[in-house]
Structure formats: C-alpha cells, structure tokens
Amino acid sequence: MSRNVILTINPGTTTTRCALFAAEGSRLSLVSEQSLGHEEIRMAEFSGIADQLGYRSACVAAFLDQAKRPDDRLIAIAGRGGMLTPVPAGVILINDELVDFALHTPVYDHASNLGAPLAQAIAAPLGIPAYIVDPVSVDELTPVARLSGFEEIPRFSFVHALNIRACGRKLAGELGKPFDELRAVVAHLGAGFSIATLLDGKIADSSNRMEISPFTPERAGGLPPLPLIELCYSGKYDKPELLKKLYGEGGVYGYLGTKDIQKIESRVAAGDAKAALVYDAMLYQIRKAIGAMASVANFELDGIILTGGLANSAIITDRLIESTRRIAPVSVYPGSNECLALAEGVLRVLDGQEVPMTWPVTVGKGVGL
Ligand SMILES: Nc1ncnc2c1ncn2[C@@H]1O[C@H](COP(=O)(O)OP(=O)(O)O)[C@@H](O)[C@H]1O
Ligand SMILES: CCCC(=O)OP(=O)(O)O
C-alpha cells in the first residue's frame, strides 16, 4: 500500500542525521533513521559550510533512495533551521531568499545553516514543499533578559529551540496542560548545551552558546571576561584559533582530550581523579544553570526536563535529579529528538494546526546583531 512519507534533515558538524517518517492521518511512524557520518578528511576539502551543499545533498539523496519504497509518496521535507536573524517560534516555508540567506549571510557559521538548502535541493525538483521548524535563532527573550550590563553587547537568543519546544510539548501532553501554559526548565545536554526557561510555552530566557553557559563536552561555555580579554590581546592565538579552542576543542575535550562522555565515565570508574573532577564540574555548572533558569519562573514550575545525548546516562540524570528535584519534578527525555520534532512541525502544517511563516520573517530589530 502506498504511504505518504516526510523526510527530515538535521545537519551537524560531522554528521547529517536523516529520517523518513510515514504520515497516517495525524500519526507519524519512523520508517528509517540514519546518522550519515562525514569523515574529517572529506570535510577538510571544503573551504566553508556552504561549499558542503553538493556533497551533503548527494548523501541525503542516497539515504532517501534506500529508505523509501518505490510506491511511497514523498509529500514534504523539513530541515533544521540555522543561524538566521531572530525569528518567532514555528514553521517557516523555505523559499529561494531563505536558502540564499542561510548559505551566504547567516549570522554565524554553523552546520544547521545547511538545513534549508538541503531540504530545498531535494524538494524543488519534486515540486513538494520544504520547511524549517524552530530554527536555532528562535527569539522569545523577555525585554529584561536582553540587557547584559553593557549597552554595546545586548543578550540575544541562539538556542536548541527545536528540541526544547518538542520536549515542552511532550511534558505538556503528559500533564494534560496546554503547551502555551507550560512553565518548565529544559536542559538540552548534547555536544552543546541550552538550558532554557519555558514560560507560557515561550523560551523566556536561556543559557546561550555564544555567552554564559555551563561548559559542555566540546565547548568552553561562559568564561571570566577579564582573563579572556587578556588572552585575546596576548598574541598567543589568532581569532580562528581561539574560536576553535572555545567551540569544538573546549569544555571536557579541552581538559581530557575526548568529547565522549561514556569514555569519561569509564575513566572515572577506573579511578582517574582529573576525569572525576571535570565530570563533577560539568554537572555542578549544569545544576547551577538549572537553578538560575528556575529563578526566571520564580521557582514555580510544572517540571524540569533533562534531554540531549547526556540524558542517556543514568549517572548524569540520577545526579541532576538528586540536586534539582526539590525545585520541581524532573522528566528525562534522552536524545535530541530533532528529526521527530521536524516531522511533527510539518504535520502540524499539513493538518492545518499551524500556518507556516514565509521568509523574510523577523522579531524586532535583531538585538545583538
Ligand atoms: N549513553 C550516554 N552516556 C553518556 N553520554 C552520552 C551517551 N550517549 C551520548 N552521550 C554524549 O552526548 C554527547 C552528544 O550528544 P548529542 O545530543 O547526541 O549530540 P549533538 O549535540 O551533536 O546532537 C556526546 O558528548 C556523547 O558522548
Ligand atoms: C544553540 C545553537 C545551535 C547549536 O549549538 O547546535 P549544536 O549543539 O547542535 O551544534
């Protein structure tokens, strides 16, 4: 029997995660999901992220070929949205202007900028719609959250909005509460972290990958400003070197030479004192950030959610539950769930529950830009 299927594409630095879902009415079922690995040596051939488009499109097309049955009907595609200017939460229809912006003038370089171009590259020849859903530039910060203390450097939002909102919807469903009334802290704990407060379903504040946040498996997080300024002017590193040290080679990797937290757990179990200290410090910073984000909601929360790759670890979730459960009940939704969240966004549009926005779309002036 012919099925309607939706393709989702989530480009990361070293992988492109693809998934195919069958859509039956308002139900989605996973047909196939694969994390397509891109070898460092192959990626080194490209001078920038935009140059990877042809190569990654071919990888996605090969995934689709093997995942789709000949009689399946591909009805829509969704890609993870990138480092765009600030946008409202929701689904955005991909058009040529959006693809051009994501490829050539994104606010920051990030693999997720390829989500829209990849989705369009597959969708356009087939004449089917393509969307991005809750891109990382979703900006719902409250006015007070935007002030940093120095007028030239306002606070701004770059956040794992897709997974955070999907987790919020899941908790709201479990509690039988409308999502737009939910009050929760969501800690997305992947290679990068976002720890965010959902107030009435909006991301009112979050720790931000560009500013203050706990250190992560590969990112340095918030650093003391004066020593950082001294280092910038010391001549020890040029700008690209320092950026690489802070994003990609910082955090756990910088201290211990691996981003693999399961390996760190084995080292801790084997008695490695430095690994234990770094692991403890990461959890300490996470629980401090959860406490700070809970304060944004006056500690009146429906729940705290632990999600992302690190939420697969029972050691991590047990320790974070122990230190935060007095604030609110803690739910654990392991993994980043981004492919499903993308497909759910498309389904909301196809079902008529949500009207997609059309690029260009923006909130306010784009503080921080
Ligand atoms: N079972 C696990 N226990 C501990 N850490 C894990 C586990 N599974 C994944 N991780 C860690 O999660 C991080 C990757 O998170 P993930 O959300 O998959 O990545 P990304 O941010 O790239 O989407 C890595 O540091 C990895 O070591
Ligand atoms: C929150 C900005 C996007 C980001 O950092 O994503 P990854 O952690 O997937 O690199």
Give an overview of the whole structure.
The chain has 12 helices and 12 strands. By secondary structure, the chain is of the alpha/beta class. The chain has 2 domains: 4-140 and 339-358, Nucleotidyltransferase, domain 5 (2-Layer Sandwich); 161-335, Nucleotidyltransferase, domain 5 (2-Layer Sandwich). It has a 7-stranded mixed sheet with strand order 3-2-1-4-6-5-12, sandwiched between helices. Helix 11 (314-324) links the parallel strand 10 and strand 11 (330-334). It is globular. The chain starts with a strand and ends in an 11-residue tail after the last strand. The mean pLDDT is 95. The structure holds adenosine-5'-diphosphate and ligand LANB7ZPL. Keywords: ATP-binding, Cytoplasm, Kinase, Nucleotide-binding, Transferase.
Helical content, roughly? 25-40%
Q: Strand order across the biggest sheet? A: 3-2-1-4-6-5-12
CATH class of the largest domain: Alpha Beta
Kindly name the structural category: alpha/beta
Enzyme class: transferase
Protein name: Probable butyrate kinase
Family: Belongs to the acetokinase family.
Catalytic activity: butanoate + ATP = butanoyl phosphate + ADP
